[in-house]
Design goal:
CATH class of the largest domain: Alpha Beta
Helix content: 40-55%
CATH superfamily of the largest domain: Alpha-D-Glucose-1,6-Bisphosphate, subunit A, domain 3
CATH topology of the largest domain: Alpha-D-Glucose-1,6-Bisphosphate, Chain A, domain 3
Distance between the termini: 41 Å
Number of strands: 21
Shape: globular
Strand content: 15-25%
Largest sheet: 6 strands, mixed
Number of domains: 4
Strand order of the largest sheet: 1-5-4-2-3-6
């Protein structure tokens, strides 16, 4: 046993290093050919950085149903990782560790994905080589990871379509469908902190992988022992095809079909928007798209430059008020009506809009979705796209943890409101189901049909997707992209803002009018963050505690129903079985609801709280009644969170 092995074993014996960490360190050292890996482990062991080693090695980064996500930069950066000076001060090499985003895990994931894609392609009897599209955001190591993955893809006998520069997650989804690829990979960690990166996998329909493909890919990735692989003979290797302006233009042409009343936007050409991509990829499409629609758009210059550090914000997350601070300041300077922000990979959108007094006010993800759902539903009936005769074919899709206001909007108009688990892949899966319901001979060229033609087919033979969204600032209103889409969302909310302005009000005024019509629905989201190996253990302890011992009374109200999505058999309104997931939905006697679930992408346990005050009969609330209801419902949610946070502390001991 060499000295490193001896020190590792001694640390395991004394309990300063987890047994799993010790095993994974030895496994990596025996399989990795990287001098950086060896030097980094030696430095961390020599300095007795056991906590850092545990966080890097307590598990092998799990390839979940959406792919991978983890740190590319450790809390402690070794000398070997730091290497030579790099742009923006990042380390030269990614973080060593089995629980990190680095070449070791990128290679294993790509090998497993390629194996399954080739098997699936052969099983279908399709001609030629299978192809995989790749994109990446502006994060540290994203480009290197994308190029590494494309090399592995071609070495193993598939073609790779690689974007020439940073592009958004939704444009990757579009590209997979546009070039008829068999899969897609996006190197991104969405709105996570700068030290993170990720690897999101899409299948041939442009949707993130779902069953049965997800489990099959996971099985092959887990069976891949190391980053090493043997390339196929040179004559059988694939080629790298660059993607750029041609795909951008095809995508923007489809985005231009989203406004239901484009003349309205042109009429309201006084609408002014401030936009920020938060140092991410959103400006590639959103800036020229808004200009194409005739909307005046100013960008925040300090945040318009791609920068993996995200230096002007605490978190590049449009859900957080702080991330919109600079954009709101610019809007107040220019008199803009609306602020739009997208996260680094441009699949989420947050906004701020003026209230009736002219002050900028943040709008929650639930409220943005409700504005979009209400407007598109109302406008579809106004334009005759929907009518009482075909309303049953209209669908709004939301997650279980998204506001019930959208369900109320659907029900009033005779539409279906389908609820899914969190994750836009489940909405994308529904879109695939609706496409498949169209007679085969009529959908042979479906991807190349115009939006008007596909809408006609969906209304006649299947289901017309009016709008879909998640409370976490993700929205879509088309099926040419099978994921949440910040580019689409920017176009959609601009149209609603133009509509509000044409009626002499603002988005905030329009939201209050919706509350007056349907009742005041408010929500609150909170989370407890627990990092590293110890944090993962605490999150599991909480999840197990809620499942085994759910509360019987919360904030003075009896619990009348508990749904455990991990064990109960649950079906949606279309009769489709909801996959099992670690989530508890708790309903109280006063009609408040609480959902508790661990995050699938971050070291958090998340709490979703819902409350509403509805009016009696068809008599709408007056403005003063809306204001009173908002105040009382907000107070009830505050009490609810105080109770839940105190209870969580007790459960953790």
């Amino acid at each position: 046993m060499n000295s490193i092995d001896s020190l590792i074993q001694a640390a395991v014996d004394t309990g300063t290093l987890l047994p799993e960490s010790g095993m994974n360190i030895i496994k990596l050292l025996s399989s990795s050919s990287s001098a950086v890996d060896k030097a980094s482990v030696e430095e961390l062991v020599g300095n007795k950085n056991w906590a850092e080693l545990n966080n890097r090695f307590f598990r092998t980064l799990a390839f979940g149903t959406g792919g991978l996500r983890g740190k590319t930069i450790g809390v402690v950066v070794t000398k070997a990782e730091q290497g030579s000076p790099q742009a923006l001060g990042r380390p030269q090499f990614a973080c060593t560790g089995t629980n990190a985003m680095n070449p070791y895990n990128i290679s294993r994931a790509t090998q497993g994905l390629v194996q399954y894609v080739k098997e699936h392609h052969a099983h279908q009897g399709s001609p030629g080589k299978p192809a995989i599209c790749l994109s990446h955001d502006t994060r540290f190591f994203s480009r290197e990871f994308a190029e590494l993955a494309s090399k592995i893809i071609t070495d193993l006998g598939c073609d790779a379509y690689l974007f020439e520069g940073p592009r958004s997650t939704p444009e990757l989804s579009f590209a997979v469908r546009h070039v008829c690829a068999q899969a897609g990979i996006n190197l991104t960690a969405s709105h996570n902190p700068p030290e993170y990166n990720g690897y999101k996998v899409y299948f041939e329909d442009g949707c993130q992988v779902v069953e049965p493909h997800a489990s099959a890919i996971i099985e092959r990735v887990n069976a891949t022992p190391s980053e090493s692989y043997e390339a196929v003979p040179e004559t059988d290797r694939g080629h790298v095809f660059p993607m750029g302006a041609e795909i951008d233009e095809a995508y923007m042409q489809r985005l231009a079909t989203l406004p239901l009343d484009p003349a309205l936007i042109k009429c309201e050409n006084s609408l002014r928007i401030v936009y920020t991509p938060l140092h991410g990829v959103g400006g590639v499409i959103i800036k020229p798209m808004l200009k194409r629609l005739g909307i005046h758009c100013d960008t925040v210059p300090e945040q318009d430059t791609p920068d993996g550090r995200f230096p002007t914000v605490k978190s590049p997350n449009p859900e957080n008020a702080e991330a919109l601070t600079m954009a709101i300041a610019l809007a107040n300077k220019t008199g803009a009506d609306l602020v739009i922000a997208t996260d680094p990979d441009d699949d989420r959108m947050g906004i701020a809009a003026r209230d009736l007094a002219g002050n900028m006010q943040l709008v929650t993800g639930n409220q943005i979705g409700s504005l979009l759902a209400w407007y598109r539903t109302t406008k579809c009936f106004e334009l005759g796209i929907l009518s009482p005769a075909n309303a049953s074919r209209g669908v709004i899709i939301k997650t279980f943890v998204t506001t019930d206001l959208q369900k109320a909007i659907a029900q009033k108009h005779g539409l279906r409101c389908v609820e899914t688990l969190t994750g836009f892949k489940y909405i994308g899966q529904k879109l695939g189901k609706y496409e498949a319901a169209i007679p085969e001979k009529l959908r042979a060229d479906y991807r190349n049909l115009s939006e008007e033609d596909t809408r006609r087919l969906r209304l006649e033979y299947s289901s017309y997707y009016i709008f879909g969204g998640e409370e976490s600032y993700g929205y879509s209103a088309s099926d040419f992209v099978r994921d949440k889409d910040g580019n689409s969302a920017a176009v959609l909310i601009a149209e609603v803002a133009a509509y509000a302005k044409s009626k002499g009000t603002t988005l905030i005024g329009l939201l209050d009018a919706i509350f007056a019509e349907f009742g005041v629905y408010l929500e609150r989201g909170e989370s407890l963050t627990m990092d590293g190996a110890e944090g993962a253990s605490k999150i599991k302890k909480l999840v197990d505690s809620y499942a085994a011992n759910p509360p019987s009374r919360i904030d003075g109200a009896d619990v009348v129903n508990v749904e455990n999505f991990a064990t109960d058999v649950i079906q949606d309104i279309e009769g489709d079985r909801i996959p099992r997931e670690a989530m508890l939905m708790i309903t109280l006697a006063d009609n408040r609801r609480v959902a508790v679930r661990p995050s699938g992408t971050e070291p958090k346990i998340k709490y979703y709280m819902f409350a509403a005050r509805k009016h009696a009969g068809d008599c709408p609330f007056s403005p003063s009644e809306v204001a009173d209801a908002k105040s009382s419902v907000t107070a009830s949610l505050e009490r609810l969170w105080n109770w839940l946070s105190a209870d969580a502390k007790l459960r953790l001991g």
